[in-house]
Amino acid sequence: GDFAQEVDTLVVGSGPGGYVAAIRAAQLGQKVTIVEKGSLGGVCLNVGCIPSKALIQAGHRAHLAKSSEDIGIRAENVAIDFEKVQEWKGSVVKKLTGGVEGLLKGNKVEIIRGEAYFSGEDTVKIMDEKSSSTYKFKHCIIATGSSPIEIPNFKYTDRVINSTGALALNEVPKKLVVIGGGYIGIELTGAYSNLGSEVVVLEGTKQILPGFEKQMAKLVERKLKKNGVTFHTEAMAKGVEETDNGVKVTAEIKGEEKVIEADYVLVTVGRKPNTEEIGLEGIGVEMDDRGYIKVDKQGRTSVKNIFAIGDIVPGPALAHKASYEAKVAAEAISGEPSEVDYLAIPAVCFSEPELATVGYNEAQAKEAGYDVKVAKFPFAANGRALSLNDADGFMKLVTRKEDGLVIGGQIAGPNASDMIAEIGLAIEAGMTAEDIALTIHAHPTLGEITMEAAEVALGTPIHTL
Ligand code: FAD
């Protein structure tokens, strides 16, 4: 219609950025409307974090079933019913997206289905198949997320797939080529390798998982190789030819041209912010040259009543970063002095072993000018890790030398994803290694590794020399 409908706080996109912003804004008394063009929950719940972790778990179970002879468990004829795996994965996604819808409604957030396009500094057009309506907002939080980058000569098809395609396959590929050894590529490599695929990884640089210390990445590489995965570093994918039931990928590997045949090729070379087709240029929202929206510490863009959060602003493209920025932006709109502080944002790769990092690693701390003490403790010296039959890995606790202040931590090992939270808490709370060492950790648990690493920092570990 011609008349603009008036709303107070408008949230565009319902991923872990948007839906969290909407709920927090509603909790603070704002009248909130959220618009979503796809599925509630965004990439994370529908085609990202959650379904990938479900597939990884299915692969992990299959792998354990097939490989526990060393502890006296022998399973014969382990079969994978992939249709059932996919069905289960879908049910997990459905529970969570349904949960988000319930939470939004419970917080009296109005949900509009459609695609938003900015037509002014305080107006959007929202279009669905049938109609287009204009909404006038007081404040807006943009959380439109990101999409997989497509590289030249690799147009996405049924066989040339991105992460979304890889999560939706209806068969376990006999052979899979993965282009890009970032965390998404490596997580999916692990999942499909465990489910029985022969996987070949092509990585352009010298090291997979560039966000993690080399020693950590090497641990993952070793484990995957043992599982039959082939790695080619300094490998440039050149092109792909589709055959009747597969692909032929051409790549230049350390200067030599090779052709690799497979059932599918998965391209995971990064993601780009969804900021191109939503009318932002027209209303003067400033972006950098890569299309990320420029924001201040509250998430405010160059248009002062418009905020931006999540994958469309600079920083790591992670769900918990999006949710964190979401709360800050919602609070800023309510006039609170909240600001982002990125130091304690963890990053996790759900590989085997899991990798996790928070705060500074040793090199980053030194670069930031700290005199550091790095305390290391191996999983192999922990009773719980040994009785899990999963003792490959280590923890590094990064502390400030003068007073033991915890400024970072890195973990490679089972449950690193959960364990990293304690180090994040220590950083947030300004704790020292002594505070962690004095905290009684239950025995036998992997948590004791954190306590022992803190004791290493103090020079008084019990279970290592
Ligand atoms: P998104 O989740 O991308 O949501 C944006 C939403 O906005 C979408 O629903 C979209 O439909 C909607 N939208 C876009 N444009 C419009 C418009 N014009 N109008 C209306 N709606 C619109 N992160 C982690 O932290 N941990 C993980 O383990 C993890 N695993 C991942 C695995 C995979 C395979 C992938 C692809 C990503 C993974 N991520 C993970 C990253 C995580 O999914 C993202 O960082 C997160 O989803 C970003 O949240 P967001 O709210 O910014 O955007």
From TrEMBL:
* Keyword Oxidoreductase listed: yes
Q: Which residues form the Pyridine nucleotide-disulphide oxidoreductase dimerisation domain?
A: 345-453
InterPro entries, A to Z: Class-I_Pyr_Nuc-Dis_Oxidored, FAD/NAD-bd_sf, FAD/NAD-binding_dom, FAD/NAD-linked_Rdtase_dimer_sf, Lipoamide_DH, Pyr_nuc-diS_OxRdtase, Pyr_nucl-diS_OxRdtase_dimer, Pyr_OxRdtase_I_AS
Which residues are in coiled coils? none
Cofactor dependence is on: FAD
Enzyme class, top EC level, equals: oxidoreductase
Question: What does the note accompanying the cofactor annotation read?
Answer: Binds 1 FAD per subunit.
Quickly give the catalysed reaction: N(6)-[(R)-dihydrolipoyl]-L-lysyl-[protein] + NAD(+) = N(6)-[(R)-lipoyl]-L-lysyl-[protein] + NADH + H(+)
Keyword annotations from UniProtKB, A to Z: Disulfide bond, FAD, Flavoprotein, NAD, Oxidoreductase, Redox-active center
Entry EC number(s): 1.8.1.4
- SUPFAM superfamilies, sorted: FAD/NAD(P)-binding domain (SSF51905), FAD/NAD-linked reductases, dimerisation (C-terminal) domain (SSF55424)
* KW Oxidoreductase (keyword) present: yes
Q: Which family does it belong to?
A: Belongs to the class-I pyridine nucleotide-disulfide oxidoreductase family.
List the NCBIfam families hit by this protein, alphabetically. Answer: lipoamide_DH
Q: What else is known?
A: The active site is a redox-active disulfide bond.
Kindly provide the name given to this protein in its UniProt entry.
Dihydrolipoyl dehydrogenase
Per the UniProt record, the source organism is Shouchella rhizosphaerae
